[in-house]
Design brief:
By secondary structure, the protein is α/β, with parallel strands linked by helices. It is built from eight helices and seven strands. Helix 6 (about 180-190) packs across helix 8 (about 210-235). GO terms for molecular function: nucleic acid binding.
């Protein structure tokens, strides 16, 4: 595998503004929130959770950043949305930050992916890759590699191996307590992206506040942590 081009990647997403969604879609989304016992406080909590979770689905969310890092050179880029707020292309610690539309972000990702052999994610099979594929289809963009082929590494095509560390560290879901990225970073003494005071739940707020570069820099923490966890997995697992 050492002769292969290996990249780690991660995406950041935000959901639509619930108030701007059409009434039919609101009814579809909130249908399951109706309770027979009439507990309004519980319904309000569930509605709040629903609104906060719209960014978890490509049907109600959008990609606002994609970070990619070459695992061996440790160089990479974060391609992020910056609506109506131009950002110059800048480089910092080997990472290029470049603002573009969602469509261009997706095109850029698949262009990079076409030249890689090994793809490393944390929970990418359940979240990042399906989200990228669906949103790419919305924009009429066809993926250049198949990152959703067989879940088990021994059955994957060597031309595009997807190492989902969430799967690997949980032994494909065999363990009872699977653990998120922060817990795995903590276990192995790796800096967690959360240590800088930002986590995935903050992305929507930062986007609303126009702090687009902050989102991109948070994304760098994710891909660096993913890269470090990959080295642990590669050496010991």
């Amino acid at each position: 595998m050492s002769t292969m081009k290996r990249i780690a990647f991660d995406i950041e997403t935000v959901g639509e503004n619930f108030d701007n969604i059409d009434e039919i879609t609101k009814d579809v989304l909130t249908h399951s929130l109706v309770r027979d016992d009439g507990d309004e406080s519980d319904k309000e909590r569930l509605l709040r959770d629903l609104k906060d979770g719209l960014g978890f689905s490509p049907l109600t969310g959008q990609v606002v950043a994609v970070g990619v890092m070459d695992i061996d050179s440790q160089k990479g880029g974060v391609y992020f949305q910056s609506p109506e707020k131009p950002h110059e292309r800048v480089e910092e610690d080997g990472i290029t930050f470049e603002a573009m539309t969602e469509e261009k972000i997706l095109k850029k990702f698949w262009e990079i992916a076409e030249h890689a052999n090994v793809f490393v994610t944390f929970n990418g099979r359940a979240f990042d890759v399906p989200f990228l594929i669906v949103k790419s289809a919305v924009h009429g963009i066809k993926p250049t590699v198949n990152l959703m082929q067989n879940r088990y590494l021994s059955y994957q095509n060597s031309g595009a191996v997807h190492v989902d560390l969430f799967d690997q560290f949980s032994f494909y879901g065999a363990v009872r307590r699977k653990g998120g990225m922060h817990l795995w970073c903590r276990a192995f003494g790796i800096k967690s992206p959360k240590e800088d005071g930002v986590n995935g739940d903050d992305v929507a707020r930062l986007f609303e506040e126009g702090k687009f570069l902050d989102i991109a820099k948070y994304n760098v923490g994710d891909i660096r942590a993913t890269k470090e966890l990959f080295h642990i997995w590669e050496k010991y697992f």
